[in-house]
Amino acid sequence: MKQHAENFPAVARDATETVTTATPFVPASPITTIPTFADLPPLPVALLPTPTRQYRQRRKARRATFAAGTPRRMPIPPPVIAGTRVLKWQWNPEAGEIGVRAAFLPGHILPGPKDARIAIEGIAPVIPNVLGDLIATPNTAAFDAIHTFTLVRQVVTMFQHALFPTSVPWQWNGRGNTEPIHLFPRAGDSMNAFYSRKEQALKFYAFTPPGALLDAPPVYTCRSQDIVAHETGHAVLDGLKPNWILTANPPQTGALHESFADLTAIFLTLTQPEQVAAIVTQTKANLHNKLFLADLVEDLGMALGRPTGLRNVENELTLGLVGTEVHDLAQVFTAAIYDILADIVAFELKPNRDPAAAVYSSAEYVCSLLVRAIKAAPDDHATFVDVVNQMLRVVELDEKPVQYRNYIRNRFALRDVVVSPTPLSADHVAGKTLEAKVQDAPEAVQTRYGCCGTLQQPQYSGEDTVAPEIEEFVRGLSGASATAGKRAG
Ligand SMILES: [Zn+2]
Predict the structure, then answer these.
(1) Distance 14 CA to ligand 1 centre (A)
(2) Cα 247 to ligand 1 centroid, rounded to whole Å
(3) Distance 454 CA to ligand 1 centre (A)
(4) Where are the domains of the chain?
(5) What is the pTM (predicted TM-score) of this model?
(6) pLDDT tens digits, one per residue of 143-164
């Protein structure tokens, strides 16, 4: 192959370049009658095939993009990284509005977009362009599809990284079932967005806010990073703990679901370097300074009538102050986890360390800590204290400094979730399990009126069927025919 290449004369790259003469071809075989390019008389430069200007520009761009600094002949081939560039909507804290951002998704993405775990449905498939990228015009269904796919992909990747090498399954996955989750970014007209286990789907609707002008554009719930991440969080947790979503559990179990969904939105924000940089600047790296959070959170979730993501950490609620409403309970857990993150960030800030790196890696760790603790918690009727004790166990296994255990114990003690057997200023004793302080009342029933569309789905309360009504209808029919028979008789 190499010999063959050397048999061809050099070709001028443009009209100003001189053509160097190649070494004449001397075949080793007796077949000497086949003319070679070297045998031909020299051609005028202008007649030689030359690359167009556009072709040379593209070659130059490709070298700069894919092989910058790479020597021509490497003893080890350069790595080949598959991936797709995408566009998405993203909250811009500086502008105070949602704008368009580019992102890179490693891995193989098929038209749709679709990959091994996620498939867009309900719109014409979006096809990658010639460079393999997914680019569409903003405010189109194709753009919303790329955006929604990107966010769900990023959430799955975040938890997959946290639980590696354990897989993050959807609830219906198992041996022989690798069905992806189906995303409907344009599910229809409604003020709603939810995860549906029954449909194996995440559905995002559009609506016109009450009081808006007649020609006002609809609000697409899929365009909110917080909403998409929150609903995906429900789907991820349903894969890890299928019983937790059912209303037959105590209120705290439902609250763990709602809180996990909100924390998913918070952690997704903290995996985006530019968002982390904005948070560091706004808060001066003091994440306890929640007054600044209002500038950082998007308003789109509020259009649905409920706060999402970071908005839910701005509270001083304790378990003693809330009842059985799942969203209220969830705010207690979400705020405690956020405060633990803020404590860990303060601990990890060092003079010789970039503060954004400290926030980024602390958030990555707390995300991993939470999801591992949840995975290790009971499969049914799990309560806050179950997860807290698992968190204490995980940080100990990870050989984190004792301060990590102290932060977990203290923040949940201040929220009336646990009782600390020692003063909060003393170190937490390794291996010590904490007792619950405020618990759900025996036989307490969840109320979910403050929750998102997912937890209000009848399918999780066993009421998602019209079968009883149909049975009653059929009974009525037979009753009617029996009566009719009597009359006839
Ligand atoms: Zn929710």
Answers:
(1) 62
(2) 13
(3) 6
(4) 2-66, 96-436
(5) 0.80
(6) 999 999 999 999 999 999 999 9
